[in-house]
What does this fold into?
Amino acid sequence: MASLPAAENWTDYPGGVDVDSGNLSAALGVGAAAGTAETEWLRLLVQGGNFSSSSELGLPEASPASSQPRANLTNQFVQPSWRIALWSLAYGVVVAVAVFGNLIVIWIILAHKRMRTVTNYFLVNLAFSDASMAAFNALVNFIYALHSEWYFGANYCRFQNFFPITAVFASIYSMTAIAVDRYMAIIDPLKPRLSATATRIVIGSIWILAFLLAFPQCLYSKIKVMPSRTLCYVQWPEGPKQHFTYHIIVIILVYCFPLLIMGITYTIVGITLWGGEIPGDTCDKYHEQLKAKRKVVKMMIIVVVTFAICWLPYHIYFILTAIYQQLNRWKYIQQVYLASFWLAMSSTMYNPIIYCCLNKRFRAGFKRAFRWCPFIQVSSYDELELKTTRFHPTRQSSLYTVTRMESVTVALDPSDTDNTKSTRKKRATPRDPSISGCSRGDSKSASTTSSFLSSPYTSVEEYS
It folds into this structure.
């Protein structure tokens, strides 16, 4: 997770890199594997990185034999200025695009009534999580990885180890909630959708669970102030094995399990939407709604796949460096860490781009947000996309509801008198196709089409 800053890796498990001494990460890997106490790994810090003398730290003096190799040590992790500049530019772009892009997404949804749907409220939660993680974690962790020194104090050390897991949990479970909501809306459209109150409860529950999962990171975070530098790390009571177990659980809960749920739901939804047409003649409104549903599902599938691809190398990096500790002595391990962490953090900036490219209303909103740019033109169509009164199916689909109820009455009331039957059959006579927009077909096909087409709880506006 993003909460595994480099120094934490350098101190109590071998998952990171050192920027000052080629021998430091190896020494820490050995110390972690042996389950040494804090005094022992501090001695290793002194021997491997030449931070200060053992006597300054109040540690027992190392033997002359153990200190001899220090004269031949070379710093294999020192980077040239041009490489630092390129990494700084790469991380700076991620933070800028992620923060401003997600803030604009939040503004588009909250400032326009037409955009306030169940799906979009979860997108607000997702955007807030991504923007917060980019703003509060990405650059701080990058600076720490470059300098191997903590400049931000004890309180921010706890926050740095705690918040990223919270934010990632909120992000991916917001996507999961959207996937489940899409599943319910498309597979069982006659069931009521989540209300605004229920949506707030789900979002609140996501954050509470995220806080609980990340709390141990905050509880065991500490800083170590030494004469030459300050370190921020997580010291687990039972050592590196407990640390490794915790983060395997985190990877399962914030990566494997939600991706499995989304994979299953979107597979079923995809088969339903793209698997074939409804039998019989269909109406224009059905095709319009089907097309809108496909667009939203396609957009969310791209969002989920992007998240999975971006975070996969980081999780692989953590597992491999924890199991194969000799990787920490590899010359290019720092570059691998910076690249995998950059890719993970870049997941926070892609969603606004995806929304803008694949959704016409978000695209209109971004045009309004950047209308001050000379090359951005907001057309009257773009203005209408966000200002048009939203269609309310519960008020305007009464004809469909009456027709459906009458057709059911004809089918389920065989015991009525002949007069009653004839009267109800007259009332159930199909209307002119020019009124409903649907072509005629057999009753079974029409009934099936109508059930998939619309319900008192969904409309085209929900999907476009």
